[in-house]
Write a structure and sequence with these properties.
Elements: H1 2-6, H2 8-70, E1 78-79, E2 83-88, E3 93-116, E4 119-141, E5 155-167, E6 175-179, E7 195-196, E8 200-202, E9 206-209, E10 221-222, E11 226-228, E12 232-235, H3 241-244, E13 249-250, E14 256-257, H4 263-268, E15 270-287, E16 289-306, E17 322-339, E18 344-358, E19 361-366, E20 370-378, E21 394-399, E22 403-405, E23 408-410, E24 417-419, E25 431-434, E26 437-440, E27 454-456, E28 468-470, E29 482-484, H5 487-491, E30 523-537, E31 542-544, E32 557-558, E33 563-564, E34 573-578, E35 583-587, E36 599-608, E37 624-625, E38 632-640
Parallel strand pairs: 6-8, 6-30, 7-10, 8-11, 9-12, 11-13, 15-18, 18-19, 18-20, 19-21, 20-22, 21-26, 22-27, 25-30, 26-30, 30-36
Antiparallel strand pairs: 1-3, 2-3, 3-4, 4-5, 5-38, 14-37, 15-16, 16-17, 23-24, 28-29, 31-36, 32-33, 34-35
Length: 647
């Protein structure tokens, strides 16, 4: 070593070695510094892009609320407009581009598990969820630094995330009306017999009255929260607030938007049966088996001679007073059957008549009026029992017009008259049982009678003369028995006119769905509901025999506008039809055997299905506050390996 140091060439060699070592050390330190700089910049870009990704997901959610108003079904998916943000530094410039693709997804779920052979197995129920998926992609492209970034078009940052938004259709109320006025624009009241044990909302004033029986001194009883966008109007004006609204009352509350259509059901449900205003689908559901009839309504022109005392004086020698010409309808029925899924939605583009026992989570809907022709119950809930522990069955009934409890009909299988939905007070079979959430969405255009209501058919019964058969004296010994039919139209002018109005005490032709009927029913028992009632306008479920606010004693007949001749009652009217042989008929409205009261229609037994706070029938319509965004609940947000593009 000493010799090397003493040598001139050795000193030069050492100097060169030290120079090389110094250079290598400098390069190493520069490399470490560059690596730290790159790592710091990469971490900064990673954090920045994640922030942008999160804001883009939020933007997608906000954009969804706007897009869903134009197209609630988000057909084919929608894209947010591309957003670009420039980030600048001393030697740093980066352009971030971001966009989201939003799709609507329907998925069936399992709502129950059963033990089979010691193992839990999923039991399909038809329960479903609808959700939106917001897929967001953020890309960051290089700026001006050649030292680190190299190619200007190289994409160094790409982040991708998926946000799930669960669709919440809003609350299913026990009772919700958009307008508490009746179709006649008159007040409808809650009174003593009304006990409501679920949430109530009205977009207008609520009318209460101390009237009738019940257990609250004639006042109605609300056991859950009541909200109204108006105020409570009482008769008499002073009322015991805490005794009436036991679950609480909020007046001047926000309005809820009442939907006008069933877009979800149309988009994702199965259309069944015929289509058209002149068609009927009549179904009986037995778990998943559906049977019934398809009806084609036909019209024909009839004529009947007018004899004021018909059939008195038969056989006639004098000419008739006049001849009545009129159209009449008939229905041609053909069998219908299908197998329903253990859950799902079904809709008819016609009138729907429905009853039965339902299995799984189902929704049945109609574009026209829905008629309830019998009980609607659950497979796993005994009649009269609470469904709250039933995890397998739930029913929704939706009409784009009204939901109406049918009075009676002629059975298509044998043409016999069937009085349905009636019963004796106190019995389990005491009227009609409806285990369902119901929605009557109809919105009349400048026609309040076109608004959707939950109500009952044939509200002002009067007697009418049915066909009679007897053997009048004739010169023909083989004439035999003769059937005298259409008696009311043979005896009175039709169509009615100002000069010849229809008698106020006699039932208007075809107002009763099984007209003519001598002794129609007034009080019909109880409406038993486990579910909810949602209606555009307040429908009647009980009427006075003579409505003082909209007089039914005017003598005028126009049933579509609730003008129904004279008052109905229980007084008998005896009519002699023929003298020899003596033939007569008694017209007398009556209560269904065992049903008590002093009016027409039903008592209420309304119970809320509290399961519907969180679970709803498939594709239940949107109910949300005015101005509120699409009712959504934010679900999971996942960062995933980014695709090259959003497809």
């Amino acid at each position: 070593m000493k010799n090397i140091l003493k040598s001139q060439s050795g000193n030069i060699a050492i100097a060169m070695l030290l120079a090389v070592i110094g250079a290598m050390s400098g390069l190493t330190m520069s490399s470490l510094a560059l690596r730290n700089s790159v790592a710091a910049m990469s971490e900064l870009e990673d954090i920045q892009s994640v922030h942008f990704l999160r804001t883009e997901a939020d933007r997608g959610q906000a954009y969804l609320s706007v897009a869903a108003k134009r197209d609630p079904d988000i057909v084919g998916g929608v894209r947010t407009p591309t957003r670009k943000i420039q980030m600048n530094g001393s030697n740093y410039r980066k352009l971030y581009s971001m966009q989201s693709l939003i799709n609507k997804i329907y998925k069936e779920t399992d709502a129950d598990y059963v033990e089979v052979g010691g193992e839990l197995q999923a039991t399909p129920t038809g329960a479903s969820i609808t959700f939106y998926q917001v897929r967001s992609l953020v890309e960051g492209r290089t700026g001006t630094s050649d030292i680190y970034y190299g190619r200007r078009d190289l994409s160094l940052t790409r982040k991708y995330g998926e946000l799930t938004l669960l669709q919440d259709t809003g609350p299913v109320f026990m009772y919700f009306t958009d307008s508490e006025l009746s179709p006649n624009d008159t007040n409808v009241y809650f009174y003593g017999y009304d006990v409501i044990n679920g949430p109530v909302h009205c977009n207008t004033d609520i009318q209460i009255k101390q009237l009738g029986g019940g257990n609250n001194n004639g006042w109605p009883t609300f056991l859950s929260i009541v909200t109204t966008s108006g105020v409570v109007i009482s008769s008499p004006p002073s009322y015991p607030r805490d005794n009436v609204f036991q679950g609480g009352l909020i007046e001047n509350y926000d309005e809820y938007e009442f939907p006008t259509n069933m877009n979800e059901i149309r988009a994702f449900g199965s259309q069944i049966g015929p289509s058209g205003e002149d068609r009927i689908l009549m179904v009986t559901v037995d778990d998943t088996q559906v049977s019934g009839w398809q009806g084609q309504i036909t019209t024909r022109r009839e004529h009947k001679e007018l004899y004021p005392n018909y059939p008195m004086g038969y056989p006639y020698t004098d000419p008739p007073t006049t001849v009545n010409y009129f159209p009449t309808t008939d229905t041609l029925w053909t069998p219908f059957s299908m197998t329903a899924h253990n859950g799902g939605a079904y809709w008819a583009n016609c009138k729907l008549w429905i009853k039965g026992t339902f299995k799984g989570f189902q929704t049945w809907a109609s574009a026209d009026t829905m008629w309830l022709i019998g009980d609607l119950t659950y497979t796993d809930t005994a009649l009269g029992a609470s469904p709250l522990q039933n995890k397998k069955d739930m029913l929704g009934l939706v009409s784009e017009q009204s939901v109406i409890i049918k009075y009676a009909y002629r059975d298509p299988s044998d043409s016999l008259r069937v009085h349905t939905n009636m019963g004796s007070d106190g019995d389990l079979d005491n009227g009609i049982w409806i285990y369902a959430a119901m929605a009557a969405l109809g919105k009349g255009v400048n026609d309040r009678y076109g608004d959707g209501v939950f109500t009952f058919e044939y509200q002002h019964p009067h007697g009418s003369i049915p066909a009679v058969k007897f053997n009048p004296p004739t010169d023909d010994p083989d004439a035999g028995m003769i059937v005298f039919d259409w008696i009311d139209i043979h005896r009175n002018y039709w169509p009615q006119s100002a000069a010849h109005s229809w008698p106020a005490w006699l039932d208007f032709p075809w107002y009763n769905p099984i007209w003519p009927e001598a002794r129609p029913y007034l009080e019909r028992g109880t409406i038993n509901i486990w579910g909810g009632v949602n209606q555009r306008r307040r429908g009647f479920v009980h009427r006075s025999m003579n409505d003082s606010e909209y007089p039914s004693n005017s003598g005028v007949w126009n049933p579509p506008t609730d003008l129904c001749g004279g008052p109905c009652g229980t007084t008998a009217t005896n009519i002699q039809l023929y003298q020899n042989p003596a033939v007569g008929v008694t017209l007398q409205s009556r209560h269904y055997p065992g049903a008590s009261g002093s009016g027409v229609g039903y008592k209420k037994n309304y119970n809320y299905d509290t399961r519907m706070y969180t679970v709803k029938p498939p594709f239940w319509p949107y109910f949300k506050k005015q101005g509120e965004r699409l009712p959504l609940e934010q679900g999971s947000w996942y960062l995933k390996k980014p695709p090259r593009t959003l497809i």
